[in-house]
Amino acid sequence: MQEAKLTQLPNNRTTIPFQLNALWKRHGELIAALSGGFLTLSAYILNTCSVPYTWLLYPAAYMAGGYFKAREGLSETLQTRRLNVELLMVMAAIGAACINHWLEGSILIFIFALSGALETYSTSKSTHALSALMDLQPEIAHLIEDDHETNVSVKQLVPGDIIHIKPGEHIPTDAVIIQGETSVNEAAMTGESVPVYKKAASEVMAGTVNLDGSVTARVTRRSRDSRFSRILDLVQSAQKEKAPTQLFIERFERTYVKGVLIVTALMLFAPHFLFEWSWSETIYRAMVLLVVASPCALVASTTPAVLSAVACGARCGILIKGGVHLEELSAIKAIAFDKTGTITGGNPEVTHFINHSSLDQKTILDQIAAIENQSSHPLGRAIVAYAAKVTGHAQLPLANHIKVKPGFGVIGYVTSHEYMIGKGEMMDADALNNFHQIYSLEASKNDETMVYIASEGKIIGLFMLKDQVRSSAKATIQTLRKNGIKTIMMTGDHERTAAIVQRETGVDTYIADCLPEHKAMKIRQLNKQYGHVAMVGDGINDTPALAQASVGIAMGAGNDAALETADVVLMKNDLTKIADAVRLSKKMSRIVKTNIAFAMAMIAFLIATNVLQLLTMSLGVVGHEGSTILVILNGLRMLRD
């Protein structure tokens, strides 16, 4: 067994520096801002008491409060060779000091640094719900080789490796159990709060928690290819993607900053000659202009709101790959849904069972389930699941001489009795007619599949199965309709099936007999008709349409290709989250527009009052930086959605 590496516990001498270092990394920007504010307040109080040399506290306040923002502005300017808001504020503070307005300059530095610290907190807080996913993936796995267990890095695991998963541990990568049984908490991946029973041949997912059993499993995917890793990739891309409004403001900022500097340079001379202002008043007004015309609030109007909205979505089980997709959602006029696996569960379920045998229901179900348990057909699995539900997971009797007739059904023996289970075409015509004369069947009206049971030349039972509509589908479609969004169902099934699902869900319209390439073409047509269209799907056949749509939305349990192609992933397979995502995007859009309008109005007001010589630098600082803090706090409201 590989030797474990032990981490030495810190002693008392190293604990305090370690804690201080961690505190500075987490709260350093806020500490610096508050220190600058404290020095400014101390200088003001001591100055009113006529204490000598108190002016020395103002440069100290400049350096303490302005350190982070000056470093950030200088670093960004050197990298991009462009001026930015941070340098504009530093220049304004230095300008205030040059005309002996140390107090106003210190207040500017303090409030600007405080707003920057708040923005940093908003970013870290809004991404906390996303980055917390990283804690779900363990770094070490227990690899079994030659009957020996070794601790290895999860990154070293390859498909085919055998690993040991102990009770209470996070599952390191996607695998299939080969020995043992347990309960697994899959809430982090599926949103299902009830633990799922797992036994041999059951699949387990990375990031989920093994609760109470010790199991051995075979790795099916590398750690980087697991579904959990793909979710982390979505999280990281969501943090990097920027909304169109945000990109526009960043481009506008570069031009605007240059304009402010040019106008400020003119302001240093022009008013003296045009309006006969004194030189001291001219320079003072130029410095005030430099402060109030800075686009701090405008720049901060989008980022906190977008990041908060993405984090809020992740907390609710909606993974959004970036602000651009979230902003696009707010403009959606129509949503197209795939049917199978999206509007419906994707797996048939028994809706009705008729027992026409001499055996009681439990006995006949156990015997039929024993035969179907050896079949891999979806209908067979549905019958086994139904039998387990009715009989309480009783032990199945022995079935033998199993013979599968592809496309029709299965034949097998239980307790020396032969059973034939399958389509009507597999049954004796006279026996089938006699059975139908006894029971009035209307399955065709509900598009249900009939699976008959025959024994000794007679029909002794019938299963009626159907791919059930998701319980959340109808509520989702009703909510979308209230929001003025049209719903369209696209399916490869025939017209009758589509019409039945439309009747059950209330979807506005449907497109039947729709092949994958037809879905993409229909999405293009819908885009022309409505302007902005979303597509919801789960399978590889939906990927062309997901890529073609303005916003592609994938079910979390869907195919890998669909998850990669989509812009939004519903982790809990809950269609009601679509309406939540639309509502979230519209709220974010309203907040961003409100922030931009408020920031522009405040800048215009402050510039106008400065030109009219009604604004002091102190009030200009409070008004300008106060508006920045307000738009940041307004954006953070998205976290409480």
Structure notes:
This protein is of the alpha+beta class. The chain has a seven-stranded mixed β-sheet. A six-stranded antiparallel β-sheet has the order 2-1-3-9-4-7, with no helix packed on it. A six-stranded antiparallel β-sheet has the order 12-17-16-15-14-13, with helices on both faces. It is elongated, with a radius of gyration of 34 Å.
Level of helix content? 40-55%
Number of strands: 22
- What is the straight-line distance between the termini? 50 Å
Number of helices: 23
Radius of gyration: 34 Å
Sheet with most strands: strand arrangement: 10-22-21-20-11-18-19
* Low-pLDDT residue spans: 1-14
- Biggest β-sheet strands, sense, barrel: 7 strands, mixed
Report strand %: 15-25%
Average of per-residue pLDDT values: 81
Keywords: ATP-binding, Cell membrane, Ion transport, Magnesium, Membrane, Metal-binding, Nucleotide-binding, Phosphoprotein, Translocase, Transmembrane, Transmembrane helix, Transport
Subcellular location: Cell membrane; Membrane
Organism: Sporolactobacillus mangiferae
Main location: membrane
In short:
This protein is α+β, with helices and mostly antiparallel strands and 641 residues long. It has 23 helices and 22 strands. The strands form 4 sheets. It has a 7-stranded mixed β-sheet with strand order 10-22-21-20-11-18-19.
Top keywords for this entry?
cell membrane; 7-stranded mixed beta sheet; 23 helices; 641 residues; 22 strands; elongated; 6-stranded antiparallel beta sheet; alpha+beta
